[in-house]
Amino acid sequence: MTLPIYQSFINGQPLANQNGERFDVVNPATGQVIYQVEQADESVMQAAVASAQQGFKTWSAMTGLERGRILNRAAAMLREQNDALAEIEMRDTGKPWQEASVVDVVTGADSVEYFGGQASSIVGESQQIGPDFFYTRREPLGVCAGIGAWNYPLQIACWKSAPALACGNSMIFKPSEETPLGAIKLAEIYHAAGVPAGVFNVVQGDYRVGQMLTSDPAIAKVSFTGEAKTGRTVMADASRTLKSVTMELGGKSPLIIFDDTNLEQAVSAAMLGNFYTQGEICTNGTRVFVQRKIYDAFLAQLVKRTENNIIAGAPENPNTNFGALISAGHRDLVMKYIDSAKAEGARLLVGGSKLQPAGCENGYFVAPTVFADCTDDMTIVREEIFGPVMAVLPFDTEEEVVQRANNTEYGLAAGIFTADITRAHRVIHQLEAGICWINSFGASPAEMPVGGYKLSGLGRENGREALAHYTQTKSVYVGLAPLEAPF
Ligand code: NAD
């Protein structure tokens, strides 16, 4: 059977590379190659930059209202094509249809719609200085680059392009080489909705393409989503041409459960924050701190619900709520973390092994895994695993748990469950994290800014704050009084 071959999407259409290099894309649930993609080479990159510069001229000259109208049309098209797009995301990532069909496309479309609405509201300020005055203009940056991770491919492409385009920039987007198709579909939709050619280009390939983006002097900004280690490399590379950067990186977020809370809700949060998308979510609450009085009851309910309510299997089965990890390599890495937890003395309560669900025997599944009695120095408590591995740690006092929760180089997210409203805010205000939830976990609406503290990132995506990261301020001083000069 001949496999479909996809290319980069430049200036409103697919563009072939010249060196002929291709890579395979695998469905993680089956282990089968489902299509191939041409790696962007120097010729593709040059075309991408030239067309993005041209696209920027046209797009930035349009009014915010016009840009917003087009983005809103694109959002509507994303929703109309929800099922076809969700199927692409399911096959590329291995996540269940149950999730992809209601989350991935929807949250991408929400962002495009939200920033479509914001496009006409980007304003400067004006101030009188004696007889003179000045005003500021929020001007677009020019050609921006987006580099995405593989866990929410289409959503990430939307979260980066929507604010960039709303502000009048053009964007060259590089999806992860593991999940390249969603971004092409987004480019087709933008184009069909009326976004001019060159305003959203997609270049395909691995880190080499990312490096071409970060080193190109014609690119004004890089918005990156991925591992903290890669983020540091990207930022260092971008610094050579003094690009501005937004960094959405990894985490090892705490979820703190006080003994006055609704136990069922707290267990739901822990499961959601560790097993949704097979644990491949950057904001996951992978360090679950449980106050000692309810520790045993919490674990008992957690184990029961993990054993009974999680259905791992073929992602397209509507009952499946737990899919495959992105690759064989990533599965092996997650298994190494599980082995390290066993070796370091954590108590395995459930899971801890690979899975071979019926029909998906060659897929990359790891069972939802819970370790209890974890300590702060264990490898699985310190390092981001990005898989379905929950570490549960008992604690006694509020002061102690705040200190332990902050004892990490990351600072992406944090959650707290308590019935005491005063304590809820008091604790949250002390946590070193950019995205916090009280009696909730994981929600990330387009209206809410998200981003990390410490090694989890720089800048913010979503919310009005994102507009500041895709514009630059020009100050214009206007003299009405005669200019005084000593000469
Ligand atoms: P990764 O860092 O391996 O790759 C991310 C992207 O960077 C890919 O497109 C990759 O091709 C590219 N890349 C790799 N090396 C590069 C280089 N030297 N220069 C330029 N580009 C380069 O991350 P991943 O494995 O794809 O994704 C998982 C990670 O992403 C996790 O750490 C997760 O926490 C993080 N993540 C963060 C957020 C967030 O919003 N904070 C969201 C999703 C995922």
Q: In words, what does this structure look like?
A:
The chain is an alpha/beta fold. It is built from 15 helices and 25 strands. The chain has helices spanning 42-61, 64-80, 82-93, 97-118, 153-166, 181-193, 207-215, 228-239, 263-275, 295-309, 328-343, 379-382, 398-405, 421-430, 465-469, and strands at 5-6, 8-10, 13-15, 22-27, 32-38, 126-129, 132-140, 143-147, 170-174, 200-202, 221-225, 244-248, 254-257, 287-291, 347-350, 354-355, 365-366, 369-372, 389-395, 410-411, 413-417, 435-438, 453-454, 457-458, 471-478. The protein has a seven-stranded mixed β-sheet with strand order 15-18-19-14-13-21-22, with helices on both faces. Strands 10-9-8-11-12-24 form a six-stranded mixed β-sheet, sandwiched between helices. It has a three-stranded mixed β-sheet with strand order 1-5-4, with helices on one face. Strand 8 (143-147), helix 5 (153-166) and strand 9 (170-174) form a beta-alpha-beta unit. Helix 4 (97-118) runs parallel beside helix 5 (153-166) and helix 7 packs parallel to helix 8 (228-239). The longest helix is centred in the first third of the chain and has 22 residues, at 97-118. The mean pLDDT is 98. The site of nicotinamide-adenine-dinucleotide has 29 residues, from helix 7 and helix 8.
